[in-house]
From TrEMBL, chain A:
The lineage of its organism: Bacteria, Bacillati, Bacillota, Bacilli, Bacillales. Belongs to the binding-protein-dependent transport system permease family. Keywords: Cell membrane, Membrane, Transmembrane, Transmembrane helix, Transport. It comes from Jeotgalibacillus alimentarius. This is Binding-protein-dependent transport system inner membrane protein. GO terms for cellular component: plasma membrane. GO terms for biological process: transmembrane transport. It comes from the Bacteria.
From TrEMBL, chain B:
InterPro entries: AAA+_ATPase, ABC_transporter-like_ATP-bd, ABC_transporter-like_CS, ABC_transporter_ATP-bind, P-loop_NTPase. Keywords: ATP-binding, Nucleotide-binding, Transport. This is ABC transporter ATP-binding protein. GO terms for molecular function: ATP binding; ATP hydrolysis activity. Transmembrane segments: none annotated. It holds the Pfam family ABC_tran. Residues 3-233 form the ABC transporter domain. It comes from the Bacteria.
Length: 252, 261
Protein backbone atom coordinates (compact mmCIF):
# COMPACT_ATOMS: atom_id res chain seq x y z
CA UNK A 1 0.00 0.00 0.00
CA UNK A 2 1.14 3.51 -0.78
CA UNK A 3 2.34 5.51 2.24
CA UNK A 4 -0.08 8.29 1.29
CA UNK A 5 -3.02 5.88 1.36
CA UNK A 6 -1.90 4.50 4.72
CA UNK A 7 -1.64 8.01 6.03
CA UNK A 8 -5.13 9.02 4.86
CA UNK A 9 -6.63 5.93 6.46
CA UNK A 10 -4.72 6.68 9.66
CA UNK A 11 -6.00 10.24 9.94
CA UNK A 12 -9.57 9.36 9.02
CA UNK A 13 -9.44 6.70 11.74
CA UNK A 14 -7.88 9.10 14.25
CA UNK A 15 -10.55 11.75 13.73
CA UNK A 16 -13.34 9.15 13.77
CA UNK A 17 -12.14 7.73 17.08
CA UNK A 18 -11.86 11.23 18.49
CA UNK A 19 -15.33 12.14 17.26
CA UNK A 20 -16.78 8.82 18.45
CA UNK A 21 -15.18 9.07 21.89
CA UNK A 22 -16.44 12.60 22.46
CA UNK A 23 -19.94 11.48 21.43
CA UNK A 24 -20.03 8.18 23.35
CA UNK A 25 -18.56 9.49 26.62
CA UNK A 26 -20.35 12.81 26.25
CA UNK A 27 -17.15 14.79 26.94
CA UNK A 28 -17.68 18.42 27.88
CA UNK A 29 -16.56 20.77 25.04
CA UNK A 30 -14.52 22.73 27.60
CA UNK A 31 -12.37 19.62 28.09
CA UNK A 32 -12.20 18.25 24.58
CA UNK A 33 -14.38 19.51 21.74
CA UNK A 34 -15.26 17.20 18.84
CA UNK A 35 -13.27 17.53 15.61
CA UNK A 36 -16.36 18.88 13.87
CA UNK A 37 -16.49 21.74 16.40
CA UNK A 38 -12.78 22.40 15.84
CA UNK A 39 -13.24 22.55 12.08
CA UNK A 40 -16.30 24.77 12.47
CA UNK A 41 -14.26 27.13 14.62
CA UNK A 42 -11.44 27.08 12.07
CA UNK A 43 -13.94 27.88 9.32
CA UNK A 44 -15.49 30.67 11.35
CA UNK A 45 -12.09 32.17 12.15
CA UNK A 46 -11.23 32.32 8.47
CA UNK A 47 -14.61 33.59 7.29
CA UNK A 48 -14.72 36.43 9.82
CA UNK A 49 -11.04 37.06 9.06
CA UNK A 50 -9.84 37.03 12.69
CA UNK A 51 -7.48 34.14 12.00
CA UNK A 52 -6.32 35.84 8.80
CA UNK A 53 -5.34 38.95 10.76
CA UNK A 54 -3.64 36.81 13.37
CA UNK A 55 -1.70 34.97 10.68
CA UNK A 56 -0.64 38.22 9.07
CA UNK A 57 0.53 39.66 12.38
CA UNK A 58 2.47 36.51 13.28
CA UNK A 59 4.09 36.23 9.88
CA UNK A 60 5.14 39.86 9.94
CA UNK A 61 7.06 39.31 13.17
CA UNK A 62 8.41 36.03 11.93
CA UNK A 63 9.82 37.56 8.75
CA UNK A 64 11.38 40.50 10.56
CA UNK A 65 12.91 38.23 13.18
CA UNK A 66 14.05 35.59 10.72
CA UNK A 67 15.59 38.14 8.37
CA UNK A 68 17.59 39.71 11.19
CA UNK A 69 18.59 36.26 12.46
CA UNK A 70 19.77 35.03 9.07
CA UNK A 71 21.95 38.08 8.44
CA UNK A 72 23.28 38.06 11.99
CA UNK A 73 23.88 34.29 11.89
CA UNK A 74 25.74 34.57 8.61
CA UNK A 75 28.02 37.31 9.93
CA UNK A 76 28.63 35.57 13.26
CA UNK A 77 29.22 32.22 11.56
CA UNK A 78 31.83 33.76 9.26
CA UNK A 79 33.45 35.47 12.23
CA UNK A 80 33.66 32.25 14.26
CA UNK A 81 35.00 30.27 11.30
CA UNK A 82 37.63 32.84 10.43
CA UNK A 83 38.83 33.99 13.86
CA UNK A 84 40.17 31.36 16.21
CA UNK A 85 40.00 33.75 19.15
CA UNK A 86 36.37 34.61 18.44
CA UNK A 87 35.57 30.91 18.13
CA UNK A 88 37.22 30.05 21.42
CA UNK A 89 35.47 32.84 23.31
CA UNK A 90 32.23 33.97 21.67
CA UNK A 91 31.85 30.50 20.13
CA UNK A 92 31.70 28.85 23.53
CA UNK A 93 29.02 31.33 24.66
CA UNK A 94 26.92 30.67 21.56
CA UNK A 95 27.17 26.90 22.09
CA UNK A 96 26.16 27.37 25.72
CA UNK A 97 23.19 29.57 24.75
CA UNK A 98 22.08 26.86 22.33
CA UNK A 99 21.02 24.70 25.24
CA UNK A 100 18.74 27.43 26.60
CA UNK A 101 15.26 27.60 25.00
CA UNK A 102 15.07 31.19 23.80
CA UNK A 103 11.65 31.71 25.46
CA UNK A 104 13.30 31.90 28.89
CA UNK A 105 14.65 35.27 27.80
CA UNK A 106 11.13 36.69 27.62
CA UNK A 107 10.97 38.19 31.13
CA UNK A 108 14.22 40.03 30.46
CA UNK A 109 13.11 41.03 26.97
CA UNK A 110 9.88 42.46 28.36
CA UNK A 111 11.89 44.48 30.87
CA UNK A 112 14.14 45.79 28.12
CA UNK A 113 11.68 46.42 25.31
CA UNK A 114 8.32 46.58 27.11
CA UNK A 115 5.34 44.27 26.64
CA UNK A 116 5.24 44.65 22.85
CA UNK A 117 6.33 43.23 19.51
CA UNK A 118 9.96 44.06 20.06
CA UNK A 119 10.19 41.62 22.96
CA UNK A 120 8.71 38.82 20.82
CA UNK A 121 10.95 39.62 17.86
CA UNK A 122 13.92 39.54 20.20
CA UNK A 123 13.02 35.98 21.24
CA UNK A 124 12.62 34.93 17.62
CA UNK A 125 15.96 36.47 16.62
CA UNK A 126 17.75 34.83 19.53
CA UNK A 127 16.45 31.35 18.79
CA UNK A 128 17.12 31.47 15.06
CA UNK A 129 20.45 33.29 15.10
CA UNK A 130 22.17 30.63 17.16
CA UNK A 131 21.38 27.69 14.83
CA UNK A 132 22.18 29.77 11.77
CA UNK A 133 25.52 30.82 13.27
CA UNK A 134 26.49 27.27 14.16
CA UNK A 135 25.60 25.95 10.71
CA UNK A 136 27.41 28.68 8.80
CA UNK A 137 30.47 28.19 10.97
CA UNK A 138 30.44 24.43 10.37
CA UNK A 139 29.91 24.97 6.65
CA UNK A 140 32.89 27.25 6.27
CA UNK A 141 35.12 25.04 8.41
CA UNK A 142 34.16 22.02 6.28
CA UNK A 143 35.03 23.50 2.90
CA UNK A 144 37.30 20.87 1.32
CA UNK A 145 40.91 22.11 1.57
CA UNK A 146 41.41 20.81 -1.97
CA UNK A 147 38.93 23.41 -3.29
CA UNK A 148 40.98 26.15 -1.67
CA UNK A 149 44.25 24.73 -3.02
CA UNK A 150 42.83 24.37 -6.53
CA UNK A 151 41.49 27.93 -6.50
CA UNK A 152 44.83 29.24 -5.28
CA UNK A 153 46.60 27.65 -8.23
CA UNK A 154 44.16 29.61 -10.39
CA UNK A 155 45.31 32.81 -8.73
CA UNK A 156 42.36 33.33 -6.40
CA UNK A 157 43.17 34.78 -3.01
CA UNK A 158 41.82 37.02 -0.27
CA UNK A 159 38.24 38.20 -0.55
CA UNK A 160 37.77 36.85 -4.06
CA UNK A 161 38.77 33.37 -2.88
CA UNK A 162 36.35 33.72 0.02
CA UNK A 163 33.40 34.95 -2.02
CA UNK A 164 33.88 32.68 -5.05
CA UNK A 165 34.87 29.46 -3.32
CA UNK A 166 34.42 29.40 0.46
CA UNK A 167 30.91 30.88 0.47
CA UNK A 168 29.42 28.79 -2.36
CA UNK A 169 31.10 25.66 -1.00
CA UNK A 170 29.38 26.16 2.36
CA UNK A 171 25.92 26.85 0.96
CA UNK A 172 24.53 23.36 1.73
CA UNK A 173 25.21 23.95 5.44
CA UNK A 174 23.81 27.47 5.26
CA UNK A 175 20.59 26.14 3.71
CA UNK A 176 20.21 23.57 6.46
CA UNK A 177 20.89 26.41 8.89
CA UNK A 178 18.07 28.41 7.33
CA UNK A 179 15.66 25.51 7.61
CA UNK A 180 16.50 24.98 11.27
CA UNK A 181 16.40 28.73 11.91
CA UNK A 182 12.86 28.83 10.52
CA UNK A 183 11.81 25.92 12.75
CA UNK A 184 13.32 27.54 15.84
CA UNK A 185 11.85 30.92 14.94
CA UNK A 186 8.36 29.53 14.46
CA UNK A 187 8.39 27.76 17.82
CA UNK A 188 9.90 30.76 19.60
CA UNK A 189 7.34 33.07 18.03
CA UNK A 190 4.39 30.99 19.18
CA UNK A 191 5.77 30.74 22.71
CA UNK A 192 6.53 34.46 22.78
CA UNK A 193 3.07 35.43 21.57
CA UNK A 194 1.41 33.05 23.99
CA UNK A 195 3.16 34.66 26.91
CA UNK A 196 3.14 38.29 25.84
CA UNK A 197 0.84 40.33 23.71
CA UNK A 198 -1.03 40.31 20.39
CA UNK A 199 -2.21 40.34 17.81
CA UNK A 200 -1.00 36.99 16.57
CA UNK A 201 -1.82 33.28 16.54
CA UNK A 202 -0.21 32.56 19.89
CA UNK A 203 -1.98 35.47 21.53
CA UNK A 204 -5.38 34.47 20.14
CA UNK A 205 -4.78 30.96 21.43
CA UNK A 206 -4.34 32.25 24.95
CA UNK A 207 -7.27 34.62 24.53
CA UNK A 208 -9.52 31.73 23.46
CA UNK A 209 -8.26 29.66 26.38
CA UNK A 210 -9.06 32.47 28.84
CA UNK A 211 -12.63 32.37 27.57
CA UNK A 212 -12.80 28.56 27.68
CA UNK A 213 -13.18 28.30 23.90
CA UNK A 214 -11.34 25.01 23.46
CA UNK A 215 -12.54 24.58 19.86
CA UNK A 216 -10.67 27.75 18.94
CA UNK A 217 -7.64 26.67 20.98
CA UNK A 218 -7.36 23.38 19.10
CA UNK A 219 -8.16 25.08 15.80
CA UNK A 220 -5.20 27.40 16.30
CA UNK A 221 -2.98 24.51 17.41
CA UNK A 222 -3.84 22.72 14.17
CA UNK A 223 -3.04 25.84 12.20
CA UNK A 224 0.34 26.24 13.92
CA UNK A 225 1.15 22.64 13.12
CA UNK A 226 0.01 22.86 9.50
CA UNK A 227 2.02 25.99 8.81
CA UNK A 228 5.08 24.45 10.42
CA UNK A 229 4.80 21.38 8.22
CA UNK A 230 3.85 23.14 5.01
CA UNK A 231 6.62 25.73 5.09
CA UNK A 232 9.19 23.10 5.96
CA UNK A 233 8.05 20.59 3.36
CA UNK A 234 7.11 22.85 0.50
CA UNK A 235 9.80 25.45 0.91
CA UNK A 236 12.86 24.56 2.93
CA UNK A 237 13.09 20.83 2.25
CA UNK A 238 12.68 21.50 -1.46
CA UNK A 239 15.48 24.06 -1.51
CA UNK A 240 17.64 21.81 0.61
CA UNK A 241 17.10 18.85 -1.71
CA UNK A 242 17.85 20.93 -4.78
CA UNK A 243 21.04 22.31 -3.29
CA UNK A 244 22.23 18.93 -2.07
CA UNK A 245 21.59 17.42 -5.49
CA UNK A 246 23.36 20.23 -7.29
CA UNK A 247 26.32 20.07 -4.90
CA UNK A 248 26.50 16.34 -5.54
CA UNK A 249 25.83 15.55 -1.89
CA UNK A 250 22.44 13.90 -2.24
CA UNK A 251 22.32 10.21 -1.38
CA UNK A 252 19.67 9.44 -3.94
CA UNK B 1 67.08 26.85 -17.68
CA UNK B 2 63.28 26.89 -17.85
CA UNK B 3 62.62 25.38 -14.42
CA UNK B 4 65.34 24.77 -11.90
CA UNK B 5 65.10 23.38 -8.41
CA UNK B 6 68.13 24.33 -6.41
CA UNK B 7 69.01 22.38 -3.33
CA UNK B 8 65.40 22.10 -2.15
CA UNK B 9 64.83 20.81 1.38
CA UNK B 10 61.51 20.51 3.10
CA UNK B 11 60.75 19.45 6.63
CA UNK B 12 57.52 19.42 8.61
CA UNK B 13 57.36 20.02 12.33
CA UNK B 14 54.55 18.32 14.22
CA UNK B 15 54.37 18.15 18.01
CA UNK B 16 57.98 19.29 18.32
CA UNK B 17 59.15 16.46 16.06
CA UNK B 18 60.78 17.54 12.83
CA UNK B 19 60.57 15.20 9.88
CA UNK B 20 62.75 15.78 6.84
CA UNK B 21 60.58 14.99 3.83
CA UNK B 22 62.65 16.29 0.92
CA UNK B 23 66.41 16.42 0.98
CA UNK B 24 68.62 18.22 -1.50
CA UNK B 25 66.39 18.10 -4.56
CA UNK B 26 68.37 19.30 -7.55
CA UNK B 27 66.55 19.17 -10.87
CA UNK B 28 66.48 21.15 -14.11
CA UNK B 29 63.62 20.91 -16.59
CA UNK B 30 63.87 22.19 -20.16
CA UNK B 31 61.05 24.03 -21.86
CA UNK B 32 58.68 21.68 -23.65
CA UNK B 33 59.87 18.66 -21.72
CA UNK B 34 57.63 15.99 -20.19
CA UNK B 35 59.19 14.97 -16.89
CA UNK B 36 57.72 12.31 -14.62
CA UNK B 37 58.47 12.10 -10.93
CA UNK B 38 58.23 8.49 -9.87
CA UNK B 39 58.60 7.15 -6.37
CA UNK B 40 56.98 5.10 -3.61
CA UNK B 41 54.06 6.58 -1.75
CA UNK B 42 55.13 9.00 0.97
CA UNK B 43 58.45 9.95 -0.62
CA UNK B 44 57.40 13.58 -0.95
CA UNK B 45 56.24 13.80 -4.57
CA UNK B 46 53.12 15.79 -3.75
CA UNK B 47 55.10 17.99 -1.39
CA UNK B 48 57.60 18.79 -4.12
CA UNK B 49 54.86 19.54 -6.64
CA UNK B 50 53.02 21.83 -4.26
CA UNK B 51 56.23 23.76 -3.66
CA UNK B 52 56.54 24.22 -7.42
CA UNK B 53 52.87 25.26 -7.50
CA UNK B 54 53.57 27.81 -4.79
CA UNK B 55 51.11 26.21 -2.35
CA UNK B 56 53.93 25.29 0.04
CA UNK B 57 57.35 26.72 0.69
CA UNK B 58 60.74 25.04 0.72
CA UNK B 59 62.46 24.99 4.10
CA UNK B 60 65.74 25.52 2.29
CA UNK B 61 66.71 26.14 -1.29
CA UNK B 62 64.65 27.69 -4.04
CA UNK B 63 62.83 26.98 -7.28
CA UNK B 64 63.10 29.26 -10.28
CA UNK B 65 60.79 29.36 -13.27
CA UNK B 66 62.14 31.28 -16.25
CA UNK B 67 64.63 33.00 -13.97
CA UNK B 68 62.05 34.10 -11.38
CA UNK B 69 62.01 32.62 -7.89
CA UNK B 70 58.67 31.02 -7.06
CA UNK B 71 57.10 32.64 -4.01
CA UNK B 72 53.43 31.74 -4.35
CA UNK B 73 50.87 30.44 -6.83
CA UNK B 74 50.75 32.00 -10.28
CA UNK B 75 48.89 31.70 -13.55
CA UNK B 76 51.96 30.54 -15.41
CA UNK B 77 51.60 27.27 -13.47
CA UNK B 78 48.48 25.14 -13.76
CA UNK B 79 47.84 22.20 -11.49
CA UNK B 80 45.78 19.02 -11.75
CA UNK B 81 45.26 17.03 -8.56
CA UNK B 82 44.45 13.38 -8.00
CA UNK B 83 40.86 14.40 -7.27
CA UNK B 84 39.36 16.57 -9.99
CA UNK B 85 38.43 19.26 -7.43
CA UNK B 86 35.73 20.68 -9.70
CA UNK B 87 33.34 23.10 -8.04
CA UNK B 88 29.94 21.38 -7.82
CA UNK B 89 27.98 24.63 -7.91
CA UNK B 90 29.34 25.41 -11.37
CA UNK B 91 28.70 23.62 -14.66
CA UNK B 92 31.52 21.95 -16.56
CA UNK B 93 31.91 25.01 -18.74
CA UNK B 94 31.80 27.44 -15.80
CA UNK B 95 34.47 25.41 -14.05
CA UNK B 96 36.79 25.85 -17.00
CA UNK B 97 35.91 29.56 -17.15
CA UNK B 98 36.71 29.95 -13.46
CA UNK B 99 40.42 30.84 -13.81
CA UNK B 100 39.67 33.16 -16.75
CA UNK B 101 36.82 35.29 -15.47
CA UNK B 102 38.70 37.88 -13.47
CA UNK B 103 40.63 38.95 -16.57
CA UNK B 104 38.30 38.70 -19.52
CA UNK B 105 34.67 39.07 -20.54
CA UNK B 106 32.26 36.21 -19.97
CA UNK B 107 31.91 35.64 -23.70
CA UNK B 108 35.62 35.42 -24.32
CA UNK B 109 36.07 33.11 -21.34
CA UNK B 110 33.28 30.89 -22.63
CA UNK B 111 34.87 30.61 -26.06
CA UNK B 112 38.19 29.68 -24.51
CA UNK B 113 36.52 27.17 -22.21
CA UNK B 114 34.84 25.50 -25.18
CA UNK B 115 38.15 25.35 -27.03
CA UNK B 116 39.86 23.52 -24.17
CA UNK B 117 36.89 21.29 -23.49
CA UNK B 118 37.03 20.20 -27.12
CA UNK B 119 40.71 19.49 -26.69
CA UNK B 120 39.87 16.98 -23.94
CA UNK B 121 36.98 15.68 -26.07
CA UNK B 122 34.23 17.00 -23.83
CA UNK B 123 32.71 19.57 -26.15
CA UNK B 124 29.30 17.92 -25.72
CA UNK B 125 29.22 18.22 -21.95
CA UNK B 126 29.58 21.96 -21.36
CA UNK B 127 26.27 22.37 -19.52
CA UNK B 128 26.53 19.28 -17.32
CA UNK B 129 27.11 19.38 -13.61
CA UNK B 130 30.35 17.80 -12.40
CA UNK B 131 28.50 15.05 -10.52
CA UNK B 132 26.66 14.06 -13.69
CA UNK B 133 29.82 12.91 -15.48
CA UNK B 134 32.22 10.04 -14.76
CA UNK B 135 35.45 10.29 -12.80
CA UNK B 136 37.54 10.13 -15.95
CA UNK B 137 35.53 12.91 -17.55
CA UNK B 138 35.83 15.02 -14.40
CA UNK B 139 39.58 14.65 -14.56
CA UNK B 140 39.51 15.77 -18.20
CA UNK B 141 37.58 18.87 -17.16
CA UNK B 142 40.23 19.53 -14.52
CA UNK B 143 42.89 19.28 -17.23
CA UNK B 144 40.94 21.69 -19.45
CA UNK B 145 40.59 24.06 -16.51
CA UNK B 146 44.34 24.05 -15.88
CA UNK B 147 45.07 24.49 -19.59
CA UNK B 148 42.62 27.37 -19.88
CA UNK B 149 45.03 29.68 -18.07
CA UNK B 150 47.53 28.82 -20.80
CA UNK B 151 50.22 28.05 -18.23
CA UNK B 152 53.85 27.62 -19.28
CA UNK B 153 54.13 24.74 -16.86
CA UNK B 154 51.51 22.09 -16.19
CA UNK B 155 51.77 20.26 -12.87
CA UNK B 156 49.95 16.96 -12.50
CA UNK B 157 49.87 15.08 -9.20
CA UNK B 158 48.90 11.45 -9.83
CA UNK B 159 46.00 12.72 -11.95
CA UNK B 160 44.86 9.25 -12.96
CA UNK B 161 45.61 7.43 -9.72
CA UNK B 162 41.95 7.05 -8.83
CA UNK B 163 40.79 5.81 -12.23
CA UNK B 164 40.31 2.35 -13.67
CA UNK B 165 42.71 0.89 -16.22
CA UNK B 166 40.74 1.56 -19.43
CA UNK B 167 39.88 5.12 -18.49
CA UNK B 168 43.48 5.67 -17.57
CA UNK B 169 44.91 4.59 -20.91
CA UNK B 170 42.38 6.75 -22.73
CA UNK B 171 43.53 9.71 -20.65
CA UNK B 172 47.17 8.88 -21.38
CA UNK B 173 46.41 9.30 -25.05
CA UNK B 174 44.67 12.61 -24.45
CA UNK B 175 47.52 13.95 -22.33
CA UNK B 176 50.13 12.83 -24.85
CA UNK B 177 48.18 14.50 -27.63
CA UNK B 178 47.86 17.72 -25.66
CA UNK B 179 51.56 17.62 -24.85
CA UNK B 180 52.51 17.19 -28.50
CA UNK B 181 50.04 19.82 -29.72
CA UNK B 182 50.51 22.55 -27.15
CA UNK B 183 54.22 21.91 -26.46
CA UNK B 184 53.66 22.61 -22.78
CA UNK B 185 56.22 21.68 -20.20
CA UNK B 186 54.69 19.03 -17.97
CA UNK B 187 55.78 17.86 -14.54
CA UNK B 188 53.89 14.66 -13.88
CA UNK B 189 53.85 12.82 -10.57
CA UNK B 190 53.02 9.13 -10.60
CA UNK B 191 53.75 5.91 -8.81
CA UNK B 192 53.10 3.84 -11.91
CA UNK B 193 56.20 2.79 -13.84
CA UNK B 194 54.18 1.97 -16.96
CA UNK B 195 52.54 5.38 -16.93
CA UNK B 196 55.85 7.22 -16.68
CA UNK B 197 57.40 5.13 -19.46
CA UNK B 198 54.47 5.78 -21.74
CA UNK B 199 54.44 9.54 -21.33
CA UNK B 200 57.76 11.05 -20.33
CA UNK B 201 60.93 12.34 -21.92
CA UNK B 202 62.69 11.88 -18.61
CA UNK B 203 61.83 10.01 -15.43
CA UNK B 204 63.01 11.27 -12.09
CA UNK B 205 63.14 8.28 -9.74
CA UNK B 206 62.80 9.28 -6.11
CA UNK B 207 63.81 7.42 -2.98
CA UNK B 208 62.20 7.84 0.38
CA UNK B 209 62.98 8.78 3.99
CA UNK B 210 64.00 11.40 3.23
CA UNK B 211 62.83 12.02 -0.32
CA UNK B 212 65.82 12.30 -2.61
CA UNK B 213 66.43 11.92 -6.31
CA UNK B 214 67.90 8.46 -6.92
CA UNK B 215 68.37 8.71 -10.63
CA UNK B 216 67.17 10.60 -13.67
CA UNK B 217 66.45 8.38 -16.65
CA UNK B 218 66.34 9.73 -20.21
CA UNK B 219 63.99 7.94 -22.56
CA UNK B 220 65.40 8.30 -26.05
CA UNK B 221 62.99 6.26 -28.06
CA UNK B 222 60.12 7.48 -30.21
CA UNK B 223 56.45 7.96 -29.35
CA UNK B 224 54.08 6.23 -29.25
CA UNK B 225 56.11 4.19 -26.83
CA UNK B 226 53.96 1.08 -27.15
CA UNK B 227 55.83 0.14 -30.34
CA UNK B 228 59.15 -0.31 -28.51
CA UNK B 229 58.57 -3.39 -26.39
CA UNK B 230 62.24 -4.10 -25.72
CA UNK B 231 63.13 -0.65 -24.47
CA UNK B 232 60.03 -0.57 -22.28
CA UNK B 233 60.97 -3.85 -20.67
CA UNK B 234 64.56 -2.81 -20.15
CA UNK B 235 63.65 0.43 -18.39
CA UNK B 236 60.90 -1.17 -16.41
CA UNK B 237 63.28 -3.68 -14.88
CA UNK B 238 65.85 -1.01 -14.26
CA UNK B 239 63.37 1.21 -12.39
CA UNK B 240 61.95 -1.73 -10.49
CA UNK B 241 65.41 -2.60 -9.22
CA UNK B 242 65.93 1.02 -8.17
CA UNK B 243 62.63 1.15 -6.31
CA UNK B 244 62.84 -2.27 -4.68
CA UNK B 245 65.21 -1.22 -1.90
CA UNK B 246 63.07 1.88 -1.30
CA UNK B 247 59.91 -0.12 -0.91
CA UNK B 248 61.73 -2.47 1.45
CA UNK B 249 62.69 0.58 3.51
CA UNK B 250 59.06 1.61 3.82
CA UNK B 251 57.95 -1.91 4.77
CA UNK B 252 60.66 -2.14 7.38
CA UNK B 253 59.67 1.17 8.93
CA UNK B 254 56.02 0.15 9.01
CA UNK B 255 56.88 -3.12 10.73
CA UNK B 256 59.02 -1.33 13.28
CA UNK B 257 56.22 1.09 13.90
CA UNK B 258 53.75 -1.75 14.33
CA UNK B 259 56.09 -3.57 16.71
CA UNK B 260 56.61 -0.47 18.85
CA UNK B 261 52.91 -0.04 19.54
N1 LIG C 1 51.27 19.21 5.93
C1 LIG C 1 52.04 18.19 6.36
N2 LIG C 1 52.41 18.12 7.66
C2 LIG C 1 53.20 17.10 8.10
N3 LIG C 1 53.66 16.12 7.33
C3 LIG C 1 53.32 16.13 6.03
C4 LIG C 1 52.50 17.16 5.47
N4 LIG C 1 52.34 16.93 4.15
C5 LIG C 1 53.04 15.79 3.90
N5 LIG C 1 53.62 15.32 5.02
C6 LIG C 1 54.48 14.12 5.10
O1 LIG C 1 55.43 14.19 4.09
C7 LIG C 1 55.67 12.92 3.53
C8 LIG C 1 55.51 12.99 2.04
O2 LIG C 1 54.17 13.22 1.71
P1 LIG C 1 53.68 13.39 0.20
O3 LIG C 1 54.42 14.51 -0.42
O4 LIG C 1 52.23 13.48 0.20
O5 LIG C 1 54.14 12.01 -0.44
P2 LIG C 1 53.74 11.35 -1.84
O6 LIG C 1 52.95 12.33 -2.62
O7 LIG C 1 55.03 10.99 -2.48
O8 LIG C 1 52.96 10.12 -1.52
C9 LIG C 1 54.71 11.96 4.20
O9 LIG C 1 55.41 11.22 5.17
C10 LIG C 1 53.68 12.85 4.86
O10 LIG C 1 53.27 12.29 6.07
MG1 LIG D 1 50.95 12.25 -3.32
Amino acid sequence: MQPAVKRIIFYVLLFSIWQGAVYVFDVSPSLLPAPTDVFASLYEGFSNLTLVYDLAASFRRLFIGLAIALVLGLLLGVLLAKSKTADETLGSLILALQSVPSIVWLPLAIMWFGLNEMAVIFIVVLGATIVMTINVRTGIMNVPPLFIKAAKTMNYKGFRLFSKVTIPASIPYAVTGMRLAWAFAWRALMAGELLSTGPGLGYSLRFASDFGDMSRVIAIMLLIMLIGIIVDLLFFQRIEKKVLRKWGLATS
Amino acid sequence: MFLSMNNVHKSFTNNDKTELVLSDIQLDVKEGEFVSILGPSGCGKSTLLSIVAGLAHATEGSIELEGKTIKGPGKERGMVFQQAALFPWLTVEENVMFPLLPDMSKKEAQQKAHHYLQMVQLGAYTKHSPHEISGGMQQRVAIARALAMDPALLLMDEPFGALDEQTRSRLHEIVEKIFLETKKTILFVTHSIAESLKLSDRIVVMGTQPGTILEVIELNFPRPRSQSKEELLYYEEKIQALLKSEIDKVTEKEQKHAASR
